[in-house]
Design goal:
By secondary structure, the protein is α/β, with parallel strands linked by helices. The chain has one domain: TIM Barrel, CATH 3.20.20.70. The chain contains 9 helices and 11 strands. Strands 3-4-5-6-7-8-9-10 form an 8-stranded parallel barrel, surrounded by 5 helices. Helix 2 (80-93) links the parallel strand 4 (60-62) and strand 5. Helix 4 (127-133) crosses helix 5 (150-162). The protein is globular, with a radius of gyration of 17 Å. The chain binds phosphoenolpyruvate and manganese (II) ion. Phosphoenolpyruvate binds at residues 38, 64, 68, 120-122, 143, 173, 208.
Length: 278
């Protein structure tokens, strides 16, 4: 039987796809670490945090300028000003950035700055957005919806690929469930599952699954162990003051510890951390 995943599947190209995002090779042997606050909140704080994350060995910066918030009364992101801050952080640190695009009308502006275009979990099946991303010249990080099957997730990836963008990376970020001990349940089984069904690189975001910082480091270690190509975590220089996802944001000191744990763990998994940026 032929695979329903014509472009994401391993049918005609059984080897892993390697996606280059800002010079980082997702999908190869290197373990890549993406870190940053949930939202870009201001220039000074973002630049200070970016410098600290680079010093700690992070390979890519994150931070939303356009935020999908449950309540319309919550902080919605700085929009274009946030993009300018991300551009400044790239210039200062030399690190590439990933940031979310929520609306096709913002795509050109976001793609001018982003090295990797994030589709948030809530937009995984926003088909007009996915088709528009097919025309983008930057790779796409497709987060799995909180309630999507693996099949729905891979078919969403197929939309971007079929619309002409060959560079898609998947991101597992936790599924809705009944337990109240975690915000979402991180579907670690999905990592080897999608790696078997598809050739696309896989990132794991333990922060949005955990919803609570003490769970992030153990889940990040597990993600590396189960075969994720990259781990994306939220870090804030002062988590108590964060404008979004305060409870799950790591302190910088916790991030430094996570980096040293992952660099010790990687060789046991036949991997190594990607080289730090110069
Ligand atoms: C985020 O990465 O900040 C985010 C909003 O994630 P998700 O779409 O997975 O909830
Ligand atoms: Mn967040």
């Amino acid at each position: 039987m032929s695979s329903p995943y014509r472009l994401a599947g391993r049918g005609e190209h059984p080897e892993d796809l390697v996606v280059n995002a800002g010079g980082l090779r997702f999908g190869g042997p290197d373990l890549i670490i993406i870190a940053g606050p949930c939202s870009v909140e201001g220039e000074e704080t973002y630049l200070r945090t970016a410098a600290a994350l680079k010093a700690a060995g992070a390979h890519m910066l994150r931070g939303g300028a356009y935020k999908p918030r449950t309540s319309p009364y919550s902080f919605q992101g700085l929009g274009p000003a946030g993009l300018r801050i991300l551009a400044a952080a790239k210039r200062r640190t030399g690190l590439p950035v990933v940031t979310e695009v929520m609306d096709p009308r913002d795509l050109d502006a976001v793609a001018r700055v982003a090295d990797l275009l994030q589709v948030g979990a809530r937009n995984m099946q926003n088909f007009p957005l996915l088709k528009e991303l097919g025309r983008a010249r930057k790779p796409v990080l497709l987060k799995r919806s909180l309630w999507a099957s693996v099949d729905e997730w891979l078919l969403a990836a197929e939309y971007v690929l079929n619309a002409g963008n060959p560079n898609v990376i998947l991101c597992e970020r936790g599924q809705r469930q009944v337990s109240e001990t975690v915000r979402c349940s991180l579907d670690l089984g999905a990592v080897p599952t999608v790696r078997g069904l598809s050739r696309l690189p896989v990132v794991v975001d333990p922060s949005h699954a955990a919803g609570e910082r003490s769970l992030v480091t153990p889940l990040a270690r597990a993600a590396a162990a189960v075969g994720a190509h990259a781990v994306m975590v939220e870090v804030h220089e002062n988590p108590e003051a964060a404008l979004s996802d305060s409870r799950q944001s790591l302190y910088l000191e916790e991030f430094r510890s996570l980096m040293s744990q992952l660099s010790a763990l990687a060789p046991a998994l036949g991997r190594k951390l990607a080289r730090p940026a110069p």
